[in-house]
Amino acid sequence: MFVAIKEQHKGVDVCINNAGLSHPEPLLSGKTSAWKNIMDVNVLALSICTREAYQSMKERNVDDGHIININSLCGHKVIPFADFHLYTATKYAVTALTEGLRQELRAEKTHIRATSISPGLVATEFISRASSKNPDEVAAFYATTKSLKTKDIASTVTYILSTSPHVQIGELLVEPI
Amino acid sequence: MFVAIKEQHKGVDVCINNAGLSHPEPLLSGKTSAWKNIMDVNVLALSICTREAYQSMKERNVDDGHIININSLCGHKVIPFADFHLYTATKYAVTALTEGLRQELRAEKTHIRATSISPGLVATEFISRASSKNPDEVAAFYATTKSLKTKDIASTVTYILSTSPHVQIGELLVEPI
Amino acid sequence: MFVAIKEQHKGVDVCINNAGLSHPEPLLSGKTSAWKNIMDVNVLALSICTREAYQSMKERNVDDGHIININSLCGHKVIPFADFHLYTATKYAVTALTEGLRQELRAEKTHIRATSISPGLVATEFISRASSKNPDEVAAFYATTKSLKTKDIASTVTYILSTSPHVQIGELLVEPI
Amino acid sequence: MFVAIKEQHKGVDVCINNAGLSHPEPLLSGKTSAWKNIMDVNVLALSICTREAYQSMKERNVDDGHIININSLCGHKVIPFADFHLYTATKYAVTALTEGLRQELRAEKTHIRATSISPGLVATEFISRASSKNPDEVAAFYATTKSLKTKDIASTVTYILSTSPHVQIGELLVEPI
Questions:
Q1: Is there a smaller number of Cβ atoms within 10 Å at the N or the C end of chain B?
Q2: A142 given a catalytic annotation
């Protein structure tokens, strides 16, 4: 992916790590393969993209880049749903990765910014994959539960990118009301 | 491993997830394979052992079991050493896994206890593997840096196991002074 | 103050708890009266203003109000400066108060929003009061230390107030880079 | 109190800050005087006792003293009971004060230890004061709710005091199961 980006666009200036998923596999009984898949996507792929984006910025002397991790409220507290416990562990990891990234960028004396956005429930296909509900149940769930829209998160990203270069929003928690 | 335990000892009553490692691979430049190895040992293996230990307790109706995760101070704050940032992310995951486990055990109405012990630096072979220091440098490091001894952690484990059955120590942070 | 607001403007729709101070009084040796003053301003006055603002919204059936607490990065981690330790304790309290407020507003079935903004260092008269530095030292401090400007925080507040009514930014951490 | 201790026992070697209370006064409607009382006891008195205990150790060159703050699970997460929200804010403050104290003791190059013990519900007169329940309701509450006993906490304190001098248990969370 990063090779294609280099050929077509020269490199990466802004990296938004948005991919994330869960499977309904509790800690007491879940399948190892499902857990591994959650970790691969939520932690490992995010870490690889972050490293590649940084290396792309570095080789082109980009000093005003921005790496944004789409984290989750689950990155900050453990909600009482067993189906999400392994997912929650990967989001705790993302909280630590964003802070670690910020420290490494500072140590390299760059002005590249790192931000974690931690939304509550957003209406996407996430729930249909992450839970064992059927489509009707998912529809009923969204009909009765408050959720953010993807455009709410997009607008948050736009705001964060638009702030003055010396302003680093490190963490933003956002939930539906 | 759990098959052998079953044959020789019938099953598991107490599971202490002590294995954990790190490699000196920062977030901006680290090797994917090293990161994967850290995640496999610190998160996936711990989760598998936890599940197998619980299933072993469940099939023998053991209601006073105990699962202890040897976490780290790094499971609670991000220290400014790039070499440890991926490790730190896995330990944040362990913090969430222990809390999630406690919730699931409660939901199952068991009295099995779950504890996270989070030590600061302990004098083991951890540092020689986790850093790029040579043996002399590691020796010099331990000569000038305060550290806990493995027996300090062992004595903490003994204490936690010895508390009354209705007392659950959820988290214990311990550091050298 | 709230009586005057009622007479002149009918009531409060948006409350921004911005007042906050510190005195250079460490935990091992500080003066009780200085500690009390920090607690009165940072915790008690904020709590009183929050309650009065809510009561003002309630009696006029204002359901889209907003209460914003200007917290601090010190509300989330303890920085190694003894002069700020009591201040830090009051900001940890503000973190809890904002979350508690959010829960109470939800329980009352209002759509009033509660937000904590936690900035790093902002260039105000805060440092000259909070530390034992003289004016020249304070000037030298700001010349060599990165800081946010008050207008950066103002612009953050404007953004938070401008989000869609169903979007609640619960916490925003922002620091200079 | 510290004068009397000095006269009768020469000074303080171990200080256990156990006093703490709450009143059923939510953030949206509570009485200022009740809030002030909670803050005075839980934060200010604890800080004064800590300072006096340290000064007593210092003037007698006691280097193996111990200051233990009886915190609460509420010092780490905001539980959904409005009656406890101001109390929770003071316990968040205690979490920060214990960490700040540890940093100051380290900066002074002492080996005096600082520990926070954070229990869940303990069966004391706390609930009868902290809630608006009458005695019968309190009795019914304890009959149906799991709680720790005061001797469980006492035994935790004993353990912490008995650890090797170079072992500092910084935080211990304990709850009934």
A1: N
A2: no
